[in-house]
Design goal:
With 399 residues, the chain is mainly beta. It has one domain: Single-stranded right-handed beta-helix, Pectin lyase-like (Pectate Lyase C-like, 3 Solenoid), CATH 2.160.20. It contains 4 helices and 35 strands. It has a 24-stranded mixed beta sheet that branches. It has an 11-stranded parallel beta sheet with strand order 4-7-11-15-18-20-22-25-28-31-33. Helix 1 packs across helix 3. The longest helix is centred in the N-terminal third of the chain and has 21 residues. The relative contact order is 0.07.
């Protein structure tokens, strides 16, 4: 199923979630009475937790109650069978208190095989949805024939899904790990693992009238994914997409293509991230390979790339149209990658408005002559078309 058809199908799923919100009002008190007087668990909403019984309806009811009451629902350790999408739609309500799941080492075992999401939450109408949380420790285990592990969406410019936290989430085996699209913004994604996914670890997209922005990703890991570790794009256009993304800490390795692909550049920063053996689908020495792609521009600080047997020839590839910064960054190699030729810090190409400033970095650079991109290398080492860079001085030029 293509993305556009998939999103259309997802809207129908959320309609059921919105209906559950209204229906649950009369049932929530009974559910709590059956449990304790403190924070409810998903068992209060009908979950079985044997790993086989379909608990998706119980999780949907738990989300509806949590949003309506501004509270968390505990997901105890164990395995929960999920045969249908866990869905929630805001309808016309606004949520302004912390709500969501406090997980205690739970695994959601997907049995979905029709390309649908495992969990889908949507801000609708004129709702402002704030303070959603998944915290504590939850794994979503996909079938390979499901869609996104977790999908959060806000297609209207009049409604937003924001100020939320995703922490301690692991997603394996789905098509994508986490998909945020539309008017989804000002969020933190912390200490999560996106591994062995059929396509991408995280996808961030502008969609409908919504702009996905101010995304903060901290100490997350992107490993062995079928395409990118992280991908930013515009659902309706070839170019464009989110550009206000900050990635701090973490590691990205053994992804089939780039670890991070910024289709519209990144005015935030990639800081203190390690990269290893990305662009596995490319042969060592491939001039189009790298760990990071930055269309328009990209800022990176304190990052290190390494390749042993893949086509991650550059730390950064890009088509530079604005100023980019690489500070205290290094790219190096061994094994078959080193034997194919030296890896470099950056491959400079783009337009005359582009500029690449390298400071205190190691690896040198290549570029496309005649592109007009300006470069400055201050206190850097490595080869270039202008000779070896000066580790205690500044060199500059224009391609």
């Amino acid at each position: 199923m293509d993305r556009r058809s998939f999103l259309t199908a997802g809207t129908g799923l959320v309609a059921a979630g919105a209906a559950a919100t209204a229906a649950l009002t009369s049932n929530s008190n009974a559910a709590l009475a059956a449990g304790s007087a403190t924070t409810p668990t998903v068992y209060n909403f009908g979950a079985v937790g044997d790993g086989y019984t379909d608990d998706s309806a119980a999780f949907s009811k738990a989300l509806a109650w949590a949003a309506s009451n501004g509270q968390m629902v505990v997901v105890p350790a164990g395995k929960y069978g999920i045969a249908n999408t866990i869905s929630w739609g805001s309808g016309s309500i606004n949520v302004g208190s912390p709500w969501g799941f406090a997980a205690q080492g739970a695994t959601l075992v997907s049995r979905i095989t029709n390309g649908a999401d495992v969990m889908f939450l949507q801000a609708q109408n004129t709702s402002d949805i704030r303070y959603f949380r998944i915290v504590g420790g939850m794994e979503i285990m996909g079938t390979g024939s499901d869609g996104n592990g977790l999908h959060i969406q806000g297609l209207s410019g009049n409604s937003g899904f924001y100020n939320f936290v995703i922490e301690g989430l692991t997603v394996v085996g789905c098509k994508n790990g986490l998909f945020l699209d539309g008017n989804v913004f000002e969020c933190n994604i912390n200490s999560c693992f996106f591994m062995d996914l059929k396509q991408d670890g995280i996808e961030l997209a502008n969609n409908g009238a919504g702009i996905c922005s101010t995304i903060n990703i901290n100490n997350c890991y992107f490993s062995q994914n079928g395409r990118y570790g992280l991908y930013t794009f515009d659902v309706h256009n070839q170019y464009g997409g989110p550009y206000d993304v900050r990635i701090t800490g973490g590691y990205a390795r053994n992804n089939q293509s780039f670890a991070f692909y910024f289709n519209n550049g990144n005015s935030g920063a990639v800081t203190n991230v390690g990269f290893e053996n990305n662009c596995m689908s490319k042969k060592p020495g491939d001039p189009s390979g790298g760990h990071v792609y930055g269309g328009v521009h990209v800022n990176m600080r304190d990052c290190v790339g390494f390749a042993m047997y893949t086509g991650a020839t550059y730390l950064v590839q890009g088509y530079f149209m604005q100023s980019s910064i690489l500070d205290n960054c290094t790219n190096w190699s061994g094994g078959a990658t080193a034997a194919a030729g030296p890896v470099k810090l950056v491959n400079i190409n783009g337009q005359s408005g582009g500029a690449v400033l390298m400071t205190n970095s190691n690896g040198g650079f290549d570029g496309t002559h005649g592109s007009g991109v300006k470069w400055i290398a201050a206190n850097c080492t490595g080869p270039s078309a202008w000779g070896n860079l000066n580790p205690i001085g500044t060199m500059s030029g224009t391609f």
